[in-house]
Amino acid sequence: TIFPGDMDIHIRALSFEYNWEQFQFISEYSRYDTVFRNIFAPGLTKKRESKGYYFQLGWQLNEKLRLFSRYDVYYPDRNDKSGSGQLLLGRPKSDGFLKDSVVGAQYNFSKHWMLAGEAHFLRGTAALAEIENPVASQVKENWDLYTVQLSYKF
């Protein structure tokens, strides 16, 4: 049950990008300190310290085609990287982390049109909304996500 309340979020991020000829390296580290007041129960204040980071390498093969690979990690509780605290909430340990290995491509077939695709190979379920996945026994720790996007730029 969610109650009317408020929350404060403090985000700290450190980003790095390096471009060299047709290669690009991007990395980021983020910390999220969130305070929930009166949301989970009237009069209850709860603090959550999350963190995440990623490394991405891109390769611009030519004007039209770009390939990339990324490794992304997220911990909703930066002090519980194994997810064992999730068991106390009746959720699987995998709700306590997310590790995402990605390969992708973008193809600009005209000035205005772009087609992009990504394949994600995930371990952990921290990014899955509990409201959409309420039965903990049906949540799989290892899963894949495939995306395709067609964009028109104007």
Q: Which bin fits the share of residues in helices?
A: under 10%
Radius of gyration: 19 Å
| Gross geometry | elongated
Structural class: mainly beta
Amount of beta strand: over 45%
Instruction: Give the total of beta strands.
Output: 7
Spatial strand sequence of the major β-sheet:
1-2-3-4-5-6-7
Counting DSSP H or I runs of 4 or more residues, the number of helices is 0
**Could you list the spans in which at least 5 consecutive residues all have pLDDT below 50?**
none
The quaternary organization reads as: single chain
Distance between the first and last residues' Cα: 43 Å
H and E string: EEEEEEE
The largest sheet, given as strand count, sense and whether it forms a barrel, is: 7 strands, antiparallel
Mean pLDDT: 93
Would you mind describing this structure in some detail?
There is one protein chain. This protein has 154 residues and is mostly beta strands. The protein has no helices and 7 strands. The chain has strands spanning 6-20, 23-37, 45-60, 65-75, 98-108, 113-124, 142-152. Strands 1-2-3-4-5-6-7 form a 7-stranded antiparallel beta sheet, with no helix packed on it. 9% of the residues are buried.
Give me a quick take on this structure.
The protein has 154 residues and is mainly beta. The chain has strands spanning 6-20, 23-37, 45-60, 65-75, 98-108, 113-124, 142-152.
